[in-house]
Amino acid sequence: METEMTELKSEQVYHSVKAKVRDFVISKEDPFANDKLDRKKNAEVLTSAAFAYQDGAVLALNGTWGTGKTTFVKMWSQHLKNNGFPVIYYNAWEDDISEEPLFSLLRCLKTVNKEEDKEGKLKKVFSVGSKIIVGIGMGAVKGALGKFGDVAAEAGKSGLDVVEKEIVNSLDKEDETAIVLQQFKNDLVEYVAFVCDNNRPLVYFIDELDRCNPTFAVKVLERIKHLFDVPNVVFVLSIDKQQLAYSINGFYGSEQINSMEYLRRFIDIDYNLPEPDSDHYCEYLYDFYGFADFTESEGRKRIVTGRSVDDKGDLLSIAKLIVKYKHLNLRQTERIFALARIVLCEMATNSKLFADVYFLMTYLKVCEPEVFDNISSFKYSLQDLINTFETMASDELIQEDKKRYGYFLKAVCQLVFCYAESIGNKYRRGDGKYETIYDEQSSDHHANITFNKFDKESGFRMMKFYEERRPDLVCEVEHFTKKLALTEPFQVGVVV
To answer: pTM of the entire structure?
Structure first.
């Protein structure tokens, strides 16, 4: 044993690996040069849409969290700049600590002032805008009508003549407010015309709005609608529309509000950012995190059975099907690959890996921790484990993608044997030898499990395969769970 551990340690090589995919540098000359998701075509479609809406519009770029919206927006904005569009980028989430977003919305206008503003057009916008901000703070811009109820309530105390005077004053203020708002729009139109060239509208990106507190998010929408609704300004809201809808419900304090219908008041065009090619992205992450340093090293050429090891093929096969059929977003996928690579740093390069089972367990650790914990604490019976994975497998995978379904079934069956190895006292004879899980002679082929959703013939064939190769292709499941929980080194036998 001592010699074996020495051999293991001698094979270990420590590498510096990346913990996550960081924002890459976006080239000014070719903003999509490092695009791994083939989204330039989406940017070109949206650029045409922006050019078409020169009367002004609000476009919602919709995608769930973790789908790469911010990176896409930054690449697209540079693409627009390269094609003569004036562009503004505003991260609302970084600003939602303030109470009034109008200040920041105005401040960002300075970023497109590309030549000397001799006539002070921007200063005029700021001047009138500052009056609006002050008016908002005092409640005047919201309209005097909101105060009439309070005024009327005082009628019995102050007399009708006082009430009449208050209402007249309020109406005068309403007229003043309308004049100020119209002046703001007029000045904004002049400034936008000044910064726009070649009939290209100003494209104003607002990112991360769905992450803001509900009050701030609604204020941003209202400011855009009531103050910036002018020709030649196209707003692009980079949002998870469903999450923004939840914010609206939170703002009004009611689940009965039809928040999606409410959003239609503010949004003219909906564009759902297409899901990326998950296969291509998995291959990119495999290269980005440097898996080849381990999986394609000299210490992994052959295992004791004499079979060639295809760690890369096994890992990517299970990764691609999980990402596709579990509909994982980019961020979830990155987290799985990152954890899988970090854990490999503690593995001996000449140890057994079972890459497909390993990645499946990594997925459970990151995305389905309850299942991972139940496996780690041995709460499942073997049948429970089979049932869990049958529930996890979509009908689309089983019925329409036979090849990938085969990869999944293979990994599940191998994991079942690893799990049985750990709870082996239930499945071993008195002499310590293995008790048969797969029984070829019995009518149902086994004593301890059955398949319900998975194809029985395929399942039993796979179980027989692992039953016959148990010493070489099975390890205790703790070798996965403890390592992925970062509690001990992952060393599962030695390749000779």
So the answer is: 0.73
